[in-house]
């Protein structure tokens, strides 16, 4: 006696062919407002390098003042009094107080906006999840928000002096 029953079932997929495809993210969403730990690590790296470049430019202005005391800075000496104020750079020549403030800002920018974010944030965001085998950081949106807080804070620090 045969006790098995055969049931004919429908085996075709019910969804459309494009239902499982995801659309490509735009450039802004993929690289600027990303929550991917690798992209955020690259963002920290590029932002840190930008701050390092700005700190390097401050150092070059200070070196020019040491090499040629009392002389106006070439090319940018005309614009700096408009940017920093005529009291800090009269006739494109640097005052002693402005030199001291450039030294303080150079050190602050190079350490807190350049070296530390490159060493810990960029490297840590990019490598640590790969080392431990995690697909992403624990809180990716908080990670992205911390990058944007760092960037905004660095810009505010640079324009505040």
Helix content: 55-70%
Oligomeric state of the chains in view? single chain
Q: pLDDT average, as an integer? A: 86
Count of DSSP E strands? 0
> What summary fits the major beta sheet?
none
Low-confidence stretches: none
Description:
The chain is mainly alpha-helical and 161 residues long. It is built from 5 helices and no strands. The model has no long low-confidence stretch (mean pLDDT 86). The chain has one domain. It has helices at residues 27-32, 37-67, 80-84, 96-132, 140-160. The N and C termini lie far apart (94 Å).
Provide a compact summary of the structure.
The mean pLDDT is 86.
Features:
single chain; 161 residues; mainly alpha
Helix and strand layout, with pairings?
Blueprint: H1 27-32, H2 37-67, H3 80-84, H4 96-132, H5 140-160
Helix pairs in contact: 2-4, 2-5
């Amino acid at each position: 006696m045969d006790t098995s029953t055969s049931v004919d079932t429908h085996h075709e997929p019910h969804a459309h062919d494009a239902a499982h495809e995801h659309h490509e993210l735009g450039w802004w969403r993929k690289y600027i407002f990303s929550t991917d730990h690798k992209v955020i690590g690259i963002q920290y790296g590029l932002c840190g390098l930008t701050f390092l470049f700005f700190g390097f430019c401050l150092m070059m202005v200070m070196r020019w003042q040491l090499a040629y005391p009392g002389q106006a800075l070439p090319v940018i000496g005309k614009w700096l009094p408009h940017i920093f104020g005529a009291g800090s750079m009269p006739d494109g020549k640097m005052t002693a107080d402005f030199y001291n403030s450039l030294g303080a800002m150079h050190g602050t920018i190079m350490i807190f906006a350049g070296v530390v974010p490159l060493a810990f944030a960029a490297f840590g965001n990019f490598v640590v999840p790969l080392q431990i085998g995690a697909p992403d950081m624990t809180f990716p949106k908080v990670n992205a928000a911390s990058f944007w807080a760092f960037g905004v804070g660095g810009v505010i620090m640079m324009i505040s002096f």
